[in-house]
């Protein structure tokens, strides 16, 4: 329970409220109950973090494990890039995206049997899908000229369901996104989609573009098969910070979004967050707030609560950005630190009826991040002026939404739950760009505070290798059973293939469920016997 008077809270609010009059963006950290002494005691660390961020932008090796520069900030300010080739590549890619998108939207680039492309299918995973999905959901309107669909997993049922939802593959432009070109989930989605095109008598190459690293496996396939176009991914941009590269800009431009505004919004926030005065720097204050609330070890989870349907996917996008960047076993000195901040969320006021009960009265193991949007309605076109409908005299549903946000924030704080509030004027391309940049900056600064590499993902690579080992084991098992005359027990299969018995059990269960193996069931599932079909 807090013991602050309303007057004390008002004074604290004024002290820790950052406001930008040009954009009406604001950050309120007044309900994170650190003291001035706390901030002052950590001044050297945050000032050093700001210096490290400045060095990163100048081209320092900010990802030492992989010996790479980290340059996603150059995507919206190429003039800052340390090499002329990079500056040229960024500018030329944005120009190529705009030109290609106009050609598609104006039906200068057409599908082989139809007048124009009416749908796009984006195939990617992680940062190659979460960013485009978030931006699409945030900015889409009924006037969009192209409708997007996404395949972001290797689930065959999900792939088929998405393909079946597309009204006409013949009018669909597919975008395959993979930096390495070897990401198995993306490859599987691509191959399944290619088969679907071919089943309808369509030439896949006439309907597909690639976004990938130069010379990658995907780049080679696209060149050999004469795909419509190829756009670059650079090794100095990580997937989770790639939304403002071709990864996000191409799908956005094809949907008719203002990609210049996206880039301008991010660049504007970058400017705000370069402020050397950490008390006037929104990303620095966010990073310090995270450090304070989690005692420098991520002891509390981040619950993202955007009070706007258009921002519903923001928490999913932030899950990868924050957790993949900060979830690290070792620090930059090689010491085991097990850092990270868990992220989850919903949308207001849906969260009122989902998990706010626990947030207020349950375990105090989190901090809230509210995203408030001042403007209630978004117009489908610039000429349209939507009117607010009154659900009660003088009261609109938007007034209720604002009231629920304020009420939730107050109710949580009254019970000792701390929170941050980010306010934007409206959900448009510029403000979405600002939100993306704000969290990218905060993540980078926080990583410096806790001395970790925010720009690699060794745990992800470990998971990929483990998955490959399972597939190798599956091949051993199926080959053994094909050459066996008798049914085999789990123990016999494990002994013959040198695969651990639990892995054998999981593999044969999956294969039997998909009619790829046969099983004679016993009283105990562990005593069943298996054979090839």
Extract low-pLDDT stretches.
none
CATH topology category name of the largest domain: Rossmann fold
State the major sheet. Answer: 6 strands, mixed
CATH architecture label name of the largest domain: 3-Layer(aba) Sandwich
Gyration radius (Cα, Å) is: 26 Å
How much strand content do the residues show? 5-15%
In percent, how helical is the residue content? Answer: 40-55%
Principal-axis shape equals globular
- How are the strands of the biggest sheet laid out side by side? 1-2-15-12-8-11
What structural class results from the helix and strand content? alpha/beta
Total number of helices: 18
Average predicted confidence as pLDDT: 95
The tally of structural domains comes to 3
In CATH terms, the superfamily of the largest domain is: Glucose-6-phosphate isomerase like protein, domain 1
What is the distance, rounded to the nearest whole angstrom, between the alpha carbons of the first and last residues?
Answer: 65 Å
Q: Return the CATH class of the largest domain.
A: Alpha Beta
Number of strands: 18
